């Protein structure tokens, strides 16, 4: 109940930024974390909100101290610090270039995103992807949920950054119903849960944002 009230208060303050009128459901949390195990550590969550996804990961045995929770809203960030005292809570804008290196030189095996990408300008979506993939291993995956009917990352952006998107499932038990996409670099297969842990090396960054021409900034 407290969670829902906090969510509603933040939604009234800034509906476009929060992007939902209710916290994600447990079912959506199960779907978006279904492929993630301790082998993917560290893991970064963008737009962690009330921490529903982080709670699912920790309940599944994922080490809390290998989680970084990125959240711009101070109300949610405070709640996350209380709930996940061992996690790194970064009260920053996920779209800010180079704002995020939560584990220094160690790259993450997965990024989970609750950011309202559908409502963000294309340039911000590109910045978020560049920053996230700059923190991911070559074979790491970016998991994004959406209320839309398609992947919230537009096809020209996927092409430009040589990324593939695959829908891994739908969740009807959520307000509103949602789908989850796995986005990976085209040249690398995602980390398999059963595979031995790989060296946490960083690949080359995604192509730089074009200054003029190319993909428009909406
Ligand atoms: C749909 S809500 C989060 C849902 C979350 N799974 C939950 O159940 O609480 C999106 C979250 O992203 C945060 N957010 C939006 N834009 C952001 C940005 N640029 N950087 C960091 N956080 C952002 C909002 O404050 C909000 O908490």
Principal-axis shape equals globular
Helix/strand class: alpha/beta
List low-pLDDT spans: 209-218
| Main sheet attributes: strand count, strand direction, barrel closure | 7 strands, mixed
Strand order of the largest sheet: 3-2-1-4-5-7-6
Radius of gyration: 16 Å
Distance between the termini: 38 Å
Please count the beta strands (DSSP E, at least 2 residues each): 7
SSE ordering: HHHEHEHEEHEHEE
Helix content: 25-40%
Which ions and ligands are bound to the chains?
S-adenosylmethionine
* Beta content: 15-25%
Q: How many helical elements?
A: 7
What value does the average pLDDT take?
Answer: 86
Q: Which oligomerization state do the chains in this entry correspond to?
A: single chain
List keywords for this structure.
218 residues, alpha/beta, seven-stranded mixed sheet, 21% strand, binds S-adenosylmethionine
Structural summary, described in words:
The chain is an alpha/beta fold and 218 residues long. The chain is built from seven helices and seven strands; from the N terminus they run αααβαβαββαβαββ. The protein has helices at 2-13, 15-18, 26-32, 52-59, 74-83, 122-134, 155-160, and strands at residues 43-46, 67-70, 88-90, 108-113, 136-146, 163-171, 178-185. A seven-stranded mixed sheet has the order 3-2-1-4-5-7-6. Helix 3 crosses helix 4 (52-59). The protein is globular and about 45 Å long. S-adenosylmethionine (SAM) binds at residues 17-20, 23-24, 47, 49-50, 52-53, 70-73, 76, 93-95, 114-116.
């Amino acid at each position: 109940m407290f969670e829902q009230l906090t969510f509603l208060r933040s939604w009234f303050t800034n509906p476009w930024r929060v992007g939902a009128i209710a916290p994600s459901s447990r079912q959506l949390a199960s779907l978006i974390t279904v492929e993630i195990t301790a082998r993917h550590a560290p893991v970064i969550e963008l737009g962690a909100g009330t921490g529903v996804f982080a709670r699912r990961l920790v309940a599944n045995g994922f080490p809390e101290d290998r989680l970084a929770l990125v959240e711009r809203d101070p109300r949610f960030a405070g709640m996350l610090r209380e709930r996940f005292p061992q996690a790194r809570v970064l009260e920053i804008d996920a779209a800010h270039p180079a704002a995020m290196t939560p584990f220094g030189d160690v790259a993450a095996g997965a990024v989970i995103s609750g950011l309202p990408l559908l409502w963000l300008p294309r340039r911000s979506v590109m910045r978020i992807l560049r920053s996230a993939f700059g923190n991911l291993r070559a074979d790491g995956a970016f998991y994004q949920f959406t209320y839309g009917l398609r992947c919230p990352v537009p096809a020209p952006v996927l092409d430009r950054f040589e990324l593939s998107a695959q829908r891994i499932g739908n969740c009807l038990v959520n307000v509103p119903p949602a789908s989850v996409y796995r986005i990976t670099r085209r040249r690398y297969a995602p980390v398999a849960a059963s595979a031995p842990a790989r060296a946490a090396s960083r690949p080359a960054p995604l192509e730089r944002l074009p200054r003029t021409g190319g993909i428009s900034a909406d």
